[in-house]
Write a structure and sequence with these properties.
501 residues; 0% strand; 25 helices; globular; mainly alpha
């Protein structure tokens, strides 16, 4: 999930026109006749673009994506499954229906054919261009499309639609909540919080604003405030979106039992395939974090039965298969994921599986794709510092990892940014500085084997062998397959420490 003001897309003179019905609209900045030149990216980035294309061409097609005009739009949130439309409940009569009051509801869009729903909204708005509610719904639909299809070219379209809604009816809560969701999808969490608060000032029961407010507070490290916001959302609008946020806040505070019970309640109440896939995947992730691989695989199977293309479930299943020893299935699954969307998390996971079995060339290809992805995103002014810090610390430039981790820590103090900074300091040989951040990453009670492993390694480097044994053992007891390389190194370090007793 990750933050700043979101109005980075320049105003266009055609903002007030009804949206195009072209099923593959061009990205902002693309010109007629553009053949995809990368000349605007600079020589270093252009080389990475070329590398990304070469590596990707064997497994997927670029679908006409013009990188020079669209580099700014490559910031797809890796944890965005919880911050766009999420699990909006079904309240409408079907994707094909268009009501006089406002075309399609967000619930219709979440449960049906999103592309068809957007086309219906576009048609409706050509006939009724002053329907502020439908402009707001269209903006949210574009955010959802970017999230579910890995198509960030929809973000500028979402912004224009939401601005149009606000121009037609200033301060309407639907559009303000949409702006909050868009800001969160762009990792602008202060902006997301500000828009959510404005929306709730207009309508205290706006479900999207209530949920995005929780997301923003979590990603800003304000966990106590996030817990209060989750309670408020559960009181005002109980349902799948509130339940899943409530569960995650409890998990971050170490209350796995409550998190699981709430997610099971959410799954029981889910009807739409999108809701079922989303909640079942959350249950799978929770089980995987506790080392319960068979249980996790069962949840991922249910998610994929609801939506066999749901990428978070495909990635989660592959990780659980790897942890359970089924490397062949894990590699196939992750290859399927990165072929469609080469994002840093699954790329690193696949690279480590290759490296663990001695295929350093293939592993290097995956790590190079991470570098290419972050370079493209940065070329367009996107903040990807947390992704950079996490990937570069183990598989890239250690100094760049530390720079990125410090920059992200300056923006927000979460358990994830604390862990990233601790590990970046460690790989740069600054373990005494790293230790307070490693302790902070584990201070909330969040049960994360990677955090425990990092803390144990750092404690060992500072000479505290007793604490190192405790935390390395805790990591392996919790989730013995948390990482192909990390778990192996944790076992070796623990064995060495035991031999020194």
């Amino acid at each position: 999930m990750p933050a700043r003001t979101t109005d980075s897309t320049p105003e266009r003179r055609d903002d007030d026109r009804a949206p195009s019905t072209d099923p593959e609209p061009r990205c902002t900045g693309e010109r007629e006749g553009d053949t995809g030149s990368d000349s605007g990216l600079g020589p270093g980035v252009a080389q990475r673009v070329a590398a990304l294309r070469r590596a990707a061409d064997g497994g997927r097609r670029w679908r006409g994506l013009h990188l020079a005009g669209c580099a700014v739009l490559l910031a797809v949130a890796v944890t965005g499954g919880a911050i766009a439309v999420g699990g909006v409940r079904d309240r409408g009569t079907g994707v094909a229906a268009v009501s006089a009051a406002g075309a399609l509801s967000p619930g219709d869009l979440a449960r049906g054919d999103l592309d068809a729903g957007i086309a219906s909204l576009q048609k409706h708005l050509r006939a009724q261009p002053r329907d502020f509610g439908s402009w707001a719904t269209l903006g949210v639909a574009y955010v959802e499309q970017a999230r579910t299809k890995g198509d960030p070219s929809r973000y500028p379209q979402a912004e224009r639609a939401l601005k149009r809604s606000l121009a037609l009816k200033p301060a309407n809560d639907q559009a303000l909540a949409g702006r909050a969701a868009l800001a969160a999808a762009r990792h602008d969490f202060p902006g997301a919080l500000a828009y959510a608060d404005r929306a709730l000032g207009q309508n205290p029961y706006n479900e999207r604003a209530l949920c995005t407010r929780i997301d923003a507070l979590v990603e800003l490290g304000r966990y106590d405030d996030a817990a209060e916001a989750a309670d408020t959302a559960d009181d005002r609008r109980p349902g799948v979106p509130a339940f899943t946020r409530y569960a995650y806040v409890r998990e971050l505070r170490g209350d796995v039992r409550t998190a699981r019970a709430v997610l099971e309640r959410a799954l029981d109440s889910a009807n739409a395939p999108a809701d079922i896939a989303y909640v079942a995947t959350a249950l799978g992730q929770l089980a995987w974090n506790q080392g319960e691989y068979k249980t996790a695989l069962g949840h991922y199977a249910r998610a994929l039965a609801a939506d066999d293309t749901y990428l978070p479930a495909l990635e989660g299943r592959a990780r659980a298969q790897a942890a359970g020893g089924d490397r062949t299935a894990a590699v196939q699954g992750l290859e399927q994921v990165v072929t469609r969307f080469p994002l840093p998390g699954p790329l690193v996971a696949l690279g480590e599986l290759y490296e663990d079995h001695g295929d350093r060339a293939k592993a290097g290809d995956q790590y190079a794709l991470v570098d290419a992805w972050t370079a493209l995103a940065r070329a367009g002014g996107v903040n990807v510092d947390l992704d950079t810090a996490m990937a570069a610390a183990d598989h890239g430039d250690e100094k760049e990892a530390l720079r990125a981790a410090r920059a992200e820590w300056d923006r927000r103090h979460t358990v994830h940014t604390a862990d990233a900074l601790a590990w970046a300091l460690h790989v740069n040989g600054r373990d005494e500085e790293a230790l307070p951040y490693a302790r902070r990453a584990t201070a909330t009670g969040y049960r994360n084997a990677v955090f425990l492993y990092h803390r144990g390694v750092i404690e060992r480097a500072t000479g505290d062998e007793g604490a190192a044994r405790t935390h390395l053992k805790a990591a392996l007891d919790l989730n013995p397959g948390f990482s192909p390389l990390g778990a192996r190194e944790a076992r070796a370090a623990l064995k060495d420490l035991e031999g020194n007793r």
